[in-house]
Amino acid sequence: FNNSLVSRELNQIVAATKGDFVFFWNPGFQPNNQSWLYELLQHAQFSEIGAVSPIVLNKKKELVYSSLILGKYGFIGRSRNNLTVSKTKIWSGEWVEKNVSAISGNCLLISKKSWNVINGLDESFQKYYWDIDLCLRLRRAGFRLVSNPFSQFIQTISDYKIFKELNPKFLESVNDRKKLITKWGVFLDVDDFYSSHSDLVGKDMIPKGLNHGFLEWYWKKMVHLIKNIPILEIDKVS
Asked: Sign of the CA dihedral 225, 227, 233, 234?
């Protein structure tokens, strides 16, 4: 892809496809079970579903992604807890098919019908956060987003290469981050499918700790400071 025109090129690719469904797939993920596509399609075939995501495990078979959580680390973060599959089934709500607020474009299945209803990607997002914007527009249009743990992938490369834009200190994504925050504002602060009593700065699906308030303030401040760095400074760094 042309790094400054990713969303435009993706729109062109999807427009040229003839199938009923489109799967966005980062090659850093590899299928972990034979039924992964069936598990995604059994949800995506329904008209009320906007997009579906598998879960992702690391090479130790620990959970590293099931969806995206709005408001995590003051912005957006992964729903994960690095628990093994057996412990995840006991100690968290990750091992259920569930509605979520956002899905990563690294592994996202969407029907062409849903895609066309919202006219594809917003091309003002040049390289980053087009997936977040896509999910929020799908939900605004009345669609549901689903995470299905019975469709599984294994992550084969480092987090930095896959989820780097979720780090507030990643400067290359600042311009697109400004666009996302300007466009969606307070909708990015609260996740409708994540308990307000659960941790947003550490392990998922556990109660907030005593220092949660301070850490949440710190991450929000970090996002605020970095999103206001002048564009010329960003150009020099990148």
From this structure: positive
pLDDT confidence bin for 72, thresholds 50/70/90? confident
Domain spans of the chain? 6-237
Q: Which residues contact 5 (CB under 8 A, 6 or more apart)?
A: 123, 126
> Tens digit of pLDDT for each residue in 30-64?
999 999 999 999 999 999 999 999 999 999 888 88
CA distance 229 to 212: 26
Task: List C-alpha distances in Å: 13 to 50, 62, 122, 147, 168.
Answer: 19, 33, 14, 25, 30
Q: Quick check: 37 and 21 in contact, CB under 8 A?
A: no
DSSP string, 126-170: -SSSHHHHHHHHHHHTT-EEEEEEEEEEEE-S-HHHHHGGGSTT-
- Give residue 74's pLDDT: 74
- C-alpha 218: how far from its chain's center? 22
Measured distance CA(116)–CA(173) in Å, rounded: 27
Which CATH code fits 6-237? 3.90.550
**pLDDT band (50, 70, 90) for residue 231:** very low
Q: What percent of the chain has pLDDT over 90?
A: 55
DSSP β-bridge partners for residue 23: 109
Does residue 81 contact residue 30 with C-beta atoms inside 8 Å? Answer: no
Is the sign of the CA dihedral 76, 56, 97, 91 positive or negative?
negative
Q: What is the pLDDT of residue 212?
A: 47
